Automatic annotation (TrEMBL):
One of its GO terms (molecular function) is N-acylneuraminate-9-phosphate synthase activity. Residues 36-272 form the PseI/NeuA/B-like domain. This is N-acetylneuraminate synthase family protein. InterPro entries: Aldolase_TIM, PseI-like, PseI/NeuA/B-like_N. GO terms for biological process: carbohydrate biosynthetic process. It comes from the Bacteria.
């Protein structure tokens, strides 16, 4: 089965859909967001993804008044969330810029008003963050949009994933294997879950959302059949913010896309044959012809 997002078809042997997650790594700055969009476009990614919250709803009660040290001084966690959140004008600006650079753009809504907000901007798809997989009200709102949905499965049990899939009840889902550790160590990658999910949900395209350092695990996911790969991106891993350390810098994203495309070419079609490049070595080295 395939799922279409914008003009691109995902699954069914098509090229891996590479999502560069900007998330909140723009730190509330539109110009930084545009620079990150440039990074994604220049690397050959297919999409950029943001996060959209209504801070008063999405911020847990016990976290709201916790002091947070920020580049703008000490403030409550709730005020920090307000400070880095883009509004309508900012999203129109960065969304138009992403479209101009040839990228799909969408976001992870963390609450129902954020779904409505993104729908007004006519995003091409929605992403469900791993933390939101158990939010049935949110999933029902996303189902009602009729848009393609990318569902991450970090911090979730098989039963919780089953319930989320039943709630979404659509054939326009891409299911993403993920482990929600930031940054993730290799022993927690558990890449064989890609095969497990493919077996558990026949016909559903399975991708990979990674939070590891480096490229090897994401590339292995592609070799195992992941139809989409999502990685956080940053201008500099030493920037202030919670996700930068588990993000790829511009050169890393370029190498990731390059190597994914090489792996896709190298996977071939599974039919054993003698390639033209083998003819000369065969003539030189093989003593018995049959």
């Amino acid at each position: 089965m395939t799922v279409s997002i914008g003009s691109r078809v995902i699954g069914g042997g098509r090229p891996t859909y590479v999502i560069a997650e900007i998330g909140l790594n723009h730190n509330g700055d539109v110009e930084i967001a545009k620079r990150l969009i440039d990074v994604a476009a220049n690397a050959g990614a297919n999409a950029v993804k943001f996060q959209k919250r209504t801070p008063e709803i999405a911020t847990p009660e016990h976290m709201r008044d916790v002091p947070r040290e920020t580049p703008w001084g000490t403030m409550s966690y709730l005020d920090y969330r307000r400070r880095v959140e883009f509004g309508r004008d900012e999203y129109i600006e960065v969304g138009d810029y992403a479209t101009m650079r040839g990228l799909d753009w969408f976001a992870s809504p963390w609450d129902v008003p954020s779904v409505e907000f993104l729908e007004e901007l006519n995003v091409v798809a929605h992403k469900v963050a791993s933390a939101s997989l158990t939010d049935i009200e949110l999933l029902e709102a996303l189902r009602a949009t009729g848009k393609p949905i990318i569902l991450s499965t970090g911090m979730s049990t098989p039963e919780q994933i089953d319930r989320a899939m039943q709630t979404l009840d659509t054939d326009r889902v891409i299911l993403m294997h993920a482990t929600s550790t930031y940054p993730m160590e290799p022993e927690e990658a558990n890449l064989r879950v890609i095969t497990t999910l493919r077996d558990r949900y026949p016909g559903v395209p399975i991708g990979y959302s990674g939070h590891e350092r480096g490229l090897q695990i994401s590339l292995a996911a592609v070799a195992l059949g992941a139809v989409a790969v999502e990685r956080h991106i940053t201008l500099d891993r030493t920037m202030w913010g919670s996700d930068h350390a588990a993000s790829l810098e511009p050169g890393g994203l370029e190498h990731l896309v390059r190597d994914i495309r090489i792996i896709e070419t190298a996977m071939g079609d599974g039919v054993k044959r003698v390639f033209p490049g083998e003819q000369a070595p065969m003539a030189k080295l093989r003593r018995v012809g049959v």
